[in-house]
Amino acid sequence: MSLKIEFEQYRLDNGLNVILHRDEKVPVVAVNVWYHVGSRNEKPGKTGYAHLFEHLMFEGSAHIPAGKHFELIQSVGGLLNGSTYFDRTNYFEVLPSHYLELGLWLESDRMGWFLESLDDDKLKLQLDIVKNERRQTVDNQPYGVWLEKILEMVYPAGFPYHWPVIGYMEDLDKAALEDFKNFFKKYYGPQNASLVIAGDFDEIAAKEYVEKYFSEIKNLASLPKENIIFDYYNSGEKRQTIEDKVQFPRLYIAYPMPAFGEKEMYAADLLSDVLSSGKSARLYRKLVHEKQICQDAFAALVPLEKSSLFIVLATAKPGISIETVESETLKEIDTIINEGLSDYEIERVKNQLAVRKVSEIQTMMARADLLNQFSVYFNNASLINSDIDNYININKKELQKIAEKYLQKQNRSVLIFLPEKI
C-alpha cells in the first residue's frame, strides 16, 4: 500500500538539507524547518533549553523586530507555529504561494542572525513565560507531573530522556545567557537543519530563494558526537505512589520499547492501537464497558529516536480501588501475552491505521513535516512512501512476541496517583 510523494533533495555547501515537494492542487506553500535538537541534547542541571529556544526564536532576530515574525505571516493570511520534542525542534509557515520568499527570509534570519538579537531582557521575558507555562501545564495541573515521573523511573539519571521537555523549574531559575548562546551555536546551524518546501511553487525560483537566504549562513560550532544506547530493558519493576490534588485514583504503567524506526517499535505501536483504538478496543471494552471499573483506559506509544515508551493509563471510577484497576489492567495485558490477539482485532486496527496515515498527508503542512521527520531521523525522506507498510505487514505472531518480550513485570514502571488525604 505504498504512497507516492515525489520530491527533490539536495544540500547546500554549509550542510543545510533541502527538500522540494511540488503539488499545484491548492495555491499554498508550506515552509518547514527541523533542527535535530531537542531536550535529549541538554545536560542534567541545564534542562529546558530546547523548549525555551522554540519561544525565543519567535522573538526577533537581527533584521526582524520582536513580534514581527507573527505579524508578517498573519498579515498575508498565513499561519505559523513551532514545537519542541525530545529529539527535534520544528518551525513552520503555511502561506499563499506567492509569499514563499517571505517565509524563507524569516526562517533564514533566525537561523543565521538570531544571536545578534539575544540579550538578558529577552531571555528573562521568555523564561518567565516558560516558567508560567510549566506551572499551568505541569505543577498546578491534576496529574500534571505524570510524564516527568515516568521518565525519571524508566530512564536512568543522566540518560537523555530522564528529564521533561519543558525542563525543571530549578534549572530554568538559574539559566544564564551565555549557556543559551553556547547551546544555540552547537545545534541551530545549517549543518543540523533540514528545510522542506511543499506545495504550489516554482522550483527555479524556490532554489534561487534558498541560495539567496541560506547559503551564506555559517555553522558556529561543530556538532557534538553522540553515542547513545539504551540498554536498560528488564531492569526490574519500579513503583511510585503520589498523593496529589486529584479527584480520582489513576494508574500509569510504562514499558521501554525499541527506538523509532526499528521493526519492533512498529509492532509495539500497532499493539497500543489494539489495546485502545476506539470503544471496541480491549482496554476500553473490558475495563470501562464490561467490568465498569474505569472511567477511561487506553495505551499509546511515544516514539523516540533512542528508545520509545509504551504507556498504559487507567482512571478508577468512584468507589473502585486502584488495586482493582491495576490488577484488571495487568490481567488484560497478560491475556495478550498468553493467548495472543484475534484476526479481527488486528485487521480492525490495520484498517483504521491505513485510513489515518493516508489522511495525515492530505495537507502540505503534514507532508512537509513527515518529509523532514524521515530525512532528519533516518537520512531517507522516501520512507514517507513506505512507512504504512511497516504496520500493514506485521503479523499476529510478531505482536504476541512483542508483548511477551517487553510487557513483562521486570520491564515496567508503575505510577499511581491517589487523592490527597484530608
Q: Mind explaining what this structure looks like?
A:
The chain is of the alpha+beta class. It folds into two domains: 8-214, 2-Layer Sandwich (Cytochrome Bc1 Complex, Chain A, domain 1), CATH 3.30.830.10; 238-419, Cytochrome Bc1 Complex, Chain A, domain 1, CATH 3.30.830.10. Helices cover 41% and strands 19% of the residues. It contains 15 helices and eleven strands. It has helices spanning 49-56, 68-75, 100-112, 120-139, 146-154, 169-173, 177-187, 203-214, 263-276, 282-290, 322-339, 343-360, 364-378, 389-392, 396-406, and strands spanning 8-11, 17-22, 28-35, 79-84, 89-96, 193-199, 238-244, 250-257, 294-302, 308-316, 413-419. A six-stranded mixed sheet has the order 1-2-6-3-5-4, sandwiched between helices. A five-stranded mixed sheet has the order 7-11-8-10-9, sandwiched between helices. Strand 4 (79-84) and strand 5 (89-96) form a beta hairpin. Helix 3 (100-112) runs parallel beside helix 8 (203-214).
Considering the chains and any ligands shown, give keywords for the structure.
alpha+beta; Cytochrome Bc1 Complex, Chain A, domain 1; 5-stranded mixed beta sheet; 422 residues; 41% helix; 15 helices; 6-stranded mixed beta sheet; 2 domains
Task: List the topology elements.
Elements: E1 8-11, E2 17-22, E3 28-35, H1 49-56, H2 68-75, E4 79-84, E5 89-96, H3 100-112, H4 120-139, H5 146-154, H6 169-173, H7 177-187, E6 193-199, H8 203-214, E7 238-244, E8 250-257, H9 263-276, H10 282-290, E9 294-302, E10 308-316, H11 322-339, H12 343-360, H13 364-378, H14 389-392, H15 396-406, E11 413-419
Parallel strand pairs: 2-6, 7-11
Antiparallel strand pairs: 1-2, 3-5, 3-6, 4-5, 8-10, 8-11, 9-10
